[in-house]
Design brief:
Low-confidence stretches: 1-42, 109-122, 498-517, 523-530, 543-556
Shape: elongated
Largest sheet: 2 strands, antiparallel
Strand order of the largest sheet: 1-2
Helix content: 40-55%
Distance between the termini: 84 Å
Mean pLDDT: 83
Order of helices and strands: HHHHHHHHEEHHHHEHHEHHHHHH
Radius of gyration: 32 Å
Number of strands: 4
Length: 556
Amino acid sequence: MTPSARLSRPSAPPTGTFDTTSDCRVRGRLSSLRSDVPGSGGGFDLGLLSPVTAGHEDPVSDVAVLEALVAAEIHLVEAFAAVGGLDQVPDRQRVLDEARELASHSFVERGAPATSRDAETPAGIEPRDLALAAVAGGNPVIPLVKELKRVAGPAVKPWVHRGATSQDILDTALMIVAKDAAGHVLAGLDLAIDALDRFAREHRGEVAAARTLTQHAVPTTTGLRAATWARAIRRARLRLTATRDALPAQLGGAGGTLASFVQLLGPDRAARLPVAYADAAGLAAPDAPWHTMRWPVTELGDALVQAIDALGVLAADVATLSRTEIGELAEGTGGGSSAMPQKQNPARSVMIRSAALRAPHLGATLHTAAALAVDERPDGAWHAEWPTLRELLRLALGASAHAAALAEGLRGDAVAVARNLEATRGLLIAERLSIVLGPIIGADAVSEIVRAASLGSDLALLVHNALDAANTAVPHSLDDLLDPAAYTGLAHYLVDGELGEGPFGLGTGAIEIVDPTAPAAEPEHGPYDPFDDGSQLPAAPPRPRGFDPFADPFTS
């Protein structure tokens, strides 16, 4: 008997009629194409319209979800055994062995040979059949349990899904899928961070024009730009790692009270069952059922959005700086054009940006669903999470993989950087002139220098003449004053600090995630004493000196 016969499948709706033989031939060819694609499920979404995710969806595919659902059922049996729930069973080991054999029934691919689909003991369940059978009850666990009990051995059959509710299994399965997918995302982020760190080192001293609100502003370095991208991605990685490691199993029974497990095991063993279930599933132990408190989903969504945000900034900057008229950066392998063979489009940046534009709205949907998770089990809000979380994971998988490739192949053009640095004829250091010359010749005189230089006058000559007119000796360091390389502030230290080598000691992981609910530490000098005469107050910190633009902050 085939899975299609076992799982009730509604008839397909009418698809319309074709008036010509040609139309019929085209339709037939397209139908044949769909049926030839392995695991296509009718070819609904293979990534044709989502190039950023194409080829990276396996960890969150329907097959992965189905395997996790079956695993969640198996882990429940293992949890019963771990707390002693099977101690009175005549053959405890046989129950566990038969439970683990259920994994072999988790999946059969559409188009599998008849020998596996029609055998007396079938190879598994076709995801499409399970999806259609899930319509009647609103979730796939209901028909899955029916099928698992049909194929289960006699010893384990009474223990399949025992005491659990559909949400226990589906939530746990989604956390299993999410934890695995997050591991793949983190691997991509690590590769991107490592590549950007190398790029930052290589371009540490390359002075470039910083742009604010699209306009040239002050000098920076190409290295600092890359270190800033890496810093944001590293921060997102830390948060995603912490979130992944905290993803909990779900086990609460029908109303979140664990009443069924108390009835089956007694209160002591029932209280230990969620921890045993989490251990078996490789997840964190829940402090309580979270059927309607959806923080595991929203926190995961937020961490994924933050990671995609950071990758989106990298992609947006690379796309901008690779414009023909700027040309400071280029992807290792540019994308082509169907009509313009000369183009080398920043294809990876474009794809990552598409993910960054979509991700925040998916995160917002998760929050909306969480806010509407009413009663003890949600009606519709829970269901809205499933495809939303899966799509967000899918985007993170694709964006992180493309970001790793983008960062590893990123190329800089020092000639273009230098050309753009001179585009404003020295006015990148206008801020410095205001700070240094303002007290000497006045703010209005500095503004006039900047205005004249912007119209084409020689900046060095303007400064020299202004100082001479003010009866101020022209310093020998005038060239240094006008040198953009001398006004990059702490850029090189920030690059080194990001890489764990600089005086700031920032390190590669020196970001502490603070619990905002933790009580504040007591001040060292103790509580306020209204009778204290002031002699016990802590010493005032040393007063900072006035700012000296020519001082070296690391020798003073």
